[in-house]
Amino acid sequence: MRIAYLDCFSGISGDMFLGALVDAGVPFGLLQQTVAALNVGASLERSRVNRGGISATKIDVLVNGKKDLPREEFWAEKSSQEANEQEAANRHLHGRHLSHILKIIAGAAISERAKTTANSIFGALGEAEARIHNVPVEKIHFHEVGAADAIVDIVCAAVGAEALQVERILASALNVGGGTVTCAHGVMPVPAPATLELLKGVPVYSGDVQKELVTPTGAAIVRVLASSFGARPLMTVDTIGYGAGARDFPKHSNVLRLTIGEVATPDDDSQGPGEQEEVDVLEANLDDLSPQIIGYVCERLLTEGALDVFATAVQMKKSRPGTLLTVLAQPRDSSKMRGILLQETSTLGVRSRREDRYVLQRRHETILTPWGEVRIKIGSMQGDDTNIAPEYEDCRRIASEKHVPLKTVLQEALRLYLEKKNG
Q1: Chain segment 309-339, per-residue pLDDT in tens
Q2: Taking each helix axis from N to C terminus, what angle separates 216-225 and 112-133, rounded to the nearest 10 degrees?
Q3: DSSP E strands: which ranges in 99-196?
Q4: In the chain, what are the domain boundaries?
Q5: How far is it, in rounded angstroms, from Cα 199 to Cα 70?
Q6: pLDDT digits (tens, 9 = 90+) for 183-238
Q7: CATH number assigned to the domain covering 361-421
């Protein structure tokens, strides 16, 4: 299995990740095209720099031809009034609410997969800010992470990650730095509030460098892209990239290292077909909750990123009929899922365990039907397509809008795909 591994020994920021991508072989032109597609008055600049003796690629985002300062320097150099005026101008020019940013992403000429990833990263940022300020995510102003440079960082990160053509991205524990950082809320300890919120459940530490090493944008990118955090797995490395941070610290290489290669696998097939991954299973027994609420909780869990949610009828103590609610989640999302179960249901406790699951390689292809486009889900093993199914939501939408029986849309989409595949 081909993977990418991020060594975050000097933290991570959006520009460091872009630099590592380009250094590892992602075409700089692809990122330039992505920026142009966003149409936010920005461009990219590439340079070669040394950080602690390590040669690395530095990517800078220019907005209206000017290089943005790191946020700490920006707030430190501006008076309070000037900073607030600049902040207001940024909001007016670039859009600060999540809905506006998602519209920019939706209108860009990039793949649907990259759009989904970018939406998830901005969604994670919005949820973190909403929890910190105790306001609905729709009302969040993104402060430093809502301007054009952050939109560029995040969307280019999504496009670049897709261009790596790896099946998984893993990351080390994150060095968050130390000391304090000056931001829109004044002087705060490192990591900044949004960064710390995003890194819940992720292993972090503070080293010798007493500066902010993980930015909110970097935290959101690694939180969404990385499927797990920990030591480097047994792998055969074939590509290495270094992305440079803004500062050059003495006796410390301020770079993000990206390595790409193949994970070593056993010679035998004792584990059976399918790719192995770890998932967390969370369960709660419910015997006093309205079915309407159970339905709502299931929908919310799926919206928040659960891999699957299902309810099973069970017989509980005192002969009470009840419901066993089961959630499958990525390990990084377990804390969030557990919080939803405790908050939204009547349970007094949630059980959890980590299990292996074996999955087919999955991809989507789009087929044009007489009523519109339908995505086809394809599961493959050792290069052979094993399971093929039209995307239900696409077919349901078409059936509703075009007044066509759902079964007809499903059948026609599958027929057209097989016809195209078989030539």
Answers
A1: 999 999 988 888 999 999 999 888 888 899 9
A2: 130
A3: 168-171, 174-175, 180-183, 186-189
A4: 2-263, 275-359, 361-421
A5: 21
A6: 666 788 999 988 999 998 899 999 889 999 999 999 999 999 998 898 888 889 99
A7: 3.10.20.300
Closest CA to 198 of 221, 179, 175: 221
Phi, psi of 110 (to 5 degrees): -130, 170
Token representation of residue 291: 């079915």
Query: Strand 168-171 relative to strand 228-229: parallel, antiparallel, unpaired?
Result: parallel
pTM above 0.85?
no
Question: Distance of CA 77 to CAs 71, 72, 150, 342, Å?
Answer: 10, 9, 20, 45
Distances (CA, A) of 55 to 98, 99, 240: 36, 39, 12
Q: How far apart are CA 120 and CA 259, in angstroms?
A: 24
Could you read off the pLDDT of 363-421 as tens digits, one per residue? 888 899 999 999 999 888 766 788 899 999 999 999 999 999 999 999 999 999 998 88
275-359 topology per CATH = Alpha-Beta Plaits (3.30.70)
The beta strand positions in 307-418, using DSSP E, are 308-315, 321-329, 351-359, 361-369, 372-381, 384-390
